Amino acid sequence: MPTSVTAVNPFTKGRPRAEAGALRASAGSETASSGDGPERRLRRLLTVSAVVAGALCLGGCSFYPTYWANKGATAQGNQIFRLYSGMMTTGIIVGGLVFLLIIYTVIRYRRRSDEMPRQFHENVPIEFIYTVLPVVIVAVLFFFTVLTENNVDATVPVDATLTSTGQPVVQIRVTAFQWGWRFDYPNLDVGVAGETTNGPGGHGPQMVVPVGEQVQITLVSDDVIHGFYVHDFNFSRYALPGVTNVFDLDVLRQGTYDGQCTQFCGLYHAEMLFSVRAVSPAAFGAWAQQEVRAGDTLRQSGSGAANNAPSYTTPYPRNP
Amino acid sequence: MTTTVERPGIAGPEGNGAHADGQHAHHEGPTGILNWLTSTDHKVIGKSYMITSLILFFIAGIMALVMRTDLADPNGSLLSFQTYNELFTMHGSLMMYLFAGPFAFGGLANFIVPLQVGAPDMAFPRLNALSYWLYLSGSILMMSGFLVAGGAASFGWVSYAPLSNATNSPGAGADLWLMALALTGFSAIFTGVNLITTIFYLRAPGMTMFRVPIFSWNMLVTGILILIAFPVLFGAVVMLFCDRHFGTHIFTVQGGGVPVLWQNLFWFFGHPEVYILALPYFGMVTDIIPVFSRKPLFGYKGMVFATMSIAALSTGVWAHHMFTTGVVLLPFFSLLSYLIAVPTGIKFFNWIGSMWGGQISFQTPMLFSIGFLFAFLMGGVTGILLASPPVDFMTHDTYFVVAHFHQVLVGTAVFAGFAGFYFWYPKMFGHMLNDTLGKLHFWTLFIAFWITYMPQYVLGLEGMPRRVAAYLPSNGWTTLNVWSTVGAWLMGASFLFFLVNIFVSYRKRIPAGDNPWDGHTLEWFTSSPPPHHNYSHLPPIRSERPTWDYNHPEHRHVHRPSRERHEREREKQAVGAGQ
Lengths: 320, 579
Fold this sequence. Notes:
Low-confidence stretches of chain A: 1-36, 300-320
Structural class of chain B: mainly alpha
CATH superfamily of chain B: Cytochrome c oxidase-like, subunit I domain
Largest interface: A-B, 92 and 96 residues
CATH superfamily of one domain in chain A: Cupredoxins -  blue copper proteins
CATH topology of chain B: Cytochrome C Oxidase, Chain A
Radius of gyration of chain B: 25 Å
CATH architecture of chain B: Up-down Bundle
Mean pLDDT of chain A: 76
Largest sheet of chain B: 2 strands, antiparallel
Order of helices and strands of chain B: EHHHHHHHHHHHHHHHEHH
Distance between the termini of chain B: 40 Å
Oligomer: heterodimer
Radius of gyration of chain A: 25 Å
Strand order of the largest sheet of chain A: 3-2-1-5-8
């Protein structure tokens, strides 16, 4: 079954993904047909603007102060980070001005005499300005929000097994349950056992993904609502019973990233950890082969982990 | 200007304050505990509401302190997981359902709104009493969850299905929680009906809608929001109860139900609820700031329309709590959420405009109001970030959100709420509160507020999820959690000043007089505390601050450019016609 698993970079679709800013724009344009004039112009414009935006990011990361956030280990997460950073800058400027205005007013007009102040109570031009100005600000914020959201939400359609270049896209079916995770790779016939946190310092089950590839996550829940959240990806999505959520992650950097359930899901919510290990495509192929040899195959239908008797031990030195 | 309008049916054109000693002259009712049990007087019910909700506030606050202490240690060794889960559920439920709302619309509004519009009582006094008793029994029901086997409800104050169904939360605590919501929900609905009717129908002669003080305006809009939101909650609660006990499958996938439906229903209630909690407090601050600046409110009509647009928008933003469900990715909800920033911004600038050019004195109510401005500014700016779905993907269910809504709600319900409490306390009880202790309360709370919540923003950005009873020491979140815990304890300590203040001021009572702050609105015209049925006579009501006009006849003339322009144009036209 896993015949396509080879040691050498089996899943590269030949799409260079070096530049984060251009990534989603180019992905979006690939799905569109090679259209006529205006469409192509629009596409070129999008590509150029994406490249310019990316160049700006690479050239001057000072445009995007981090403000305690991380820059995102995925293409999507990086876009979200940049939106966050821009909005924080706006918020600090606007909020800071209002802050200073309050401070100034309070100090300047503190009571210094019993003189009766002038009893004015309106100023239509000023009121008009401070009605229109916030509208303009939120319109701009909304514009960038929609741009980012469209890119982040866009899932590149994948054929059940093969992409246009003939290589399978890495699809992972993530199942959340009380209390743990299961990561199934239907293309590869691999399933990673979904265990809850194992022992003190344990980081839960591990999802392995290749770097520089499109990874499509299908997120489901076996019981209650859980939250799939990887901090370094700047991304979370609910695992909802009865709903199948699909999203793309394009991991840019190798490393191990901590994940955790963020939506409160019952007793052991705090310990519903997992991690994501992003490796080179070659290493990913090797890992998949090893998993197959080890017999970590896809879960059998009907044997949901939630149905199993809980074999849970808390890693913390106490009992609930 | 000394002419007064006599209220028909009530005798006596005696001067103001003459009623202070003879306030029960016309009221032959029981006194003491029996008065409390049987009263339909809005002032008695208002006080009962306020005292009950403050007790629940302190209980919920102590729960928060216990949780914060638990979180100062990564292993959370103080509490078991189950206890922690119960505590954060009940902390949220008490604060949201039983304190912030009832304190405002059942407590202060109940007492103040009839006074502000010049009414003798609420429109439906018996309904008002029923409302309080439903609220009290609901509160007791919710708290009694701690006494039953399996403990109190432990699914968060949002009670997401299917975690809240019979399989996942089998205990009786969950049922008690649902029943409590049903009871307190009806209590809120009744109060809403009462407020709307009182403000529409019981206004004194001359009190046109555009002379109603902003606090009462906001309570009118709050009442309307209550009628929009709470029936939906009640419906959802009944459905969930049927799911739990009568075999329906409205929110369970196995029977063909839709868990997300709960979220839609809940947040259709829940977001207006946020403004049901916020608007009354905006109103308090709006009434307080002009008084201590000795100026009229800047942009009165702008304030009214801002309140109404906030309320209108709040009914169309519920799905911004559901961005990460992946089933509601419409930019519509993001746009409407953003737009709420506009009327909120208008309010901010009107508050600043009211202080601008004034003579600001920093007595306790004003300090708390200014504290509210800073707290709410911070909570508001981070709220704009959360209106953006991608940023929400990044921060949803982390401590960033926790910090955001605590800054908003502590800003409103605590800073503005205690501003209102310190402001109206003399009117309610007839004696002053100690200003020095009040200022100590404020400054301790204000400093503690930032120590508590600013680390939580950073914790959220570093990835700490909310509602976790423990975290790994390797996460590196310990230091900031300790800071947050220290701040929380300081916040708790600040309320000792408040309690001491109440005690000291009661023991050595300094009479407040009718109008200790040189207030603007009608309630400062009657005695403190007001007599039964509130007013024996009223001043002429010719603007939105009748008491001020009465006391400062030389400053009564308010600058009205629009009317002046109108008159000038009429004159011009008359002259033109003459020629």
